[in-house]
Amino acid sequence: MRLHLLFTSNIFLAILAHFQISKSGVFTHSISNVYPAEFVKVSGTEFLQNNKTWKPVGFNTYLLIEQAAELPHGSFHAIYSDSFGKNEILKQFEQAILLNFTCVRTWLYSINSNYPLFLEDGVYDERLLGALDWIIAVARAHGLKLILSFTDFWPESGGISSLILLSRKFLDLSPDHSEQYGRSSFFTDQNYFSLYIRHVEHILLRKSKITGTRYCDESTVMAWELMVSLLLTTFKFLHLFIQNEPRCRLCSEGILQKWIWNAAKAVKSLDKRHLLTVGEEGFYASTKNYVNPAKWASDTGQNFISDHIFTEIDYASSHLWTDNWNLFSAWSRKHVKNDSFNFSKTWIEEHSSDSLNILQKPFVLSEYGSTGFGNRNNIIGSLVTTEDQRQTKVSRFYSEVHTALLQNRNGALFWIWHNENLKYLPSYQDEYGIFVSDNVFDRLRNYSQVLRS
Question: Phi then psi for 21, rounded to 5 degrees?
């Protein structure tokens, strides 16, 4: 009964936060004592909270900032105005608690091209930042931790594409600094690095208009990610395997590692209280390329061990995308030889072992998902597979991944939990989307319960 009352009071405060921030833009009630203001820490290969072992287990979503900002025209043509978006978040967070989830991973920016976060150097859309204030306050009221990514390297708006466009407009760059140049030289050009660090500083030093707490002092945030999906390559045919990914011409070995080190040092100089990780897929260089899905992965510039070895990086993380990586494509050396479970099992075991034994840091599988078609571009499979068959395959994938994860009791965040209303929109196009009504949610609930027991 006491737990129920505490939970109910926290939800009440979350709703109160929703009401006051949406009506006046100012939150007057302090929620600092709803949950103990304890930062997640690392001790050896374990995460700790309140001096007890703690595991990040939960989900990914990139739509929170759109929903909290109550955008009238969100991604997939969803309508979040008139408090609908905020109510959806409250409902999702309440369900997350019932599922024993502890953590949510999301973006600090909108991927919606109609609502960019960056307006000019040092100037941001306050509506979106206000939405982020609200998300953090409501997550805290629910006892959920957040992993927040500063930016990403995908070509869609919101990530470094926005920073590059910003630099072309406001920085004194030569005419050859085109967007393509920016994408290929982002990790080597000091102008871009300075702009990235100014962006990070703006976020970390922001004071929430709801709680009055600076982001760098906000214990609801478990960790920051430098960037989602860092990739470099000298090969133009990489798009055969990873759609729309960036390329770096004439890249030499160590470029990405140098950028990670410098960026991590800069972040830690501003914020020593939060955990920090890289945010990459976790590909290996040539010394361990047998773990990779195919040869192209060795040419992305990533090297899992080297990328996470720096003292400033507190824990290691990787992603698992057997569908995205075209594991069974004609170009893959693993074509037909192994099923996805064997690959997934090896991938998780190797990354977990390297994290625990070589890096001596905790490991988190921060993205993993499946379409149920075996290949993201399997048009025929998507046409002949019924929804029941797809959900059965997705459930099996999650079950197999969880079995491998439980060997070392690794933390994990699945991709991607969407609100039920998106399922019925004609414009909805995320084939990885998971909904509460899907059978796979039973697998997710079971894993979170076992991991937290």
Answer: -70, -30
* Tokens (6 digits) for 175: 């005419």
Domain limits of the chain? 2-452
* In contact, 216 and 274? CB cutoff 8 Å: yes
Selection from 14, 25, 6 nearest residue 69 by Cα = 25
Classify 2-452 by CATH class: alpha beta
For residue 59, the cross-strand partners are 104, 414
- Please list the residues that pair with 149 across neighbouring strands: 107, 225
CA-CA-CA-CA torsion sign (62, 63, 68, 73): positive
CB 49 within 8 A of CB 38: yes
Instruction: Give the whole-angstrom CA distance, residue 435 versus residue 441.
Output: 8
The tokens describing 233, both together, are 């390559």
pLDDT exceeds cutoff 60 at 380 = no
Task: Judge whether 450 and 409 are in contact, CB under 8 Å.
Answer: no
> What are the CA-CA distances from residue 132 to residues 117, 197, 338, 449 (Å)?
11, 19, 43, 29
* Assigned token pair, 452: 């937290």
How many Cβ atoms are within 10 Å of 161's Cβ, its own excluded?
Answer: 23
The two tokens of residue 179 are 């967007």
Residue 88 has pLDDT above 60, yes or no: yes
CA–CA separation, 297 and 231 (whole Å): 9
pLDDT score, position 40: 98
Give residue 236's pLDDT. Answer: 39
User: How, if at all, do strands 46-49 and 41-43 pair?
Assistant: antiparallel
Distance between CA atoms of residues 189 and 172, nearest Å: 13
Q: Which two tokens stand for residue 348?
A: 């998780």
State how far the Cα of 434 lies from the Cα of 391, in Å rounded to an integer.
9
For the ranges 5-19, 42-56, 314-328, the maximum mean pLDDT occurs at 42-56
Give dist(CA 217, CA 208) in Å, integer: 10
List, for residues 424-433, the tens digit of each pLDDT value: 777 777 889 9
Distance CA 13, CA 411 (A): 29
Task: Decide if 112 contacts 62 (C-beta within 8 A).
Answer: no
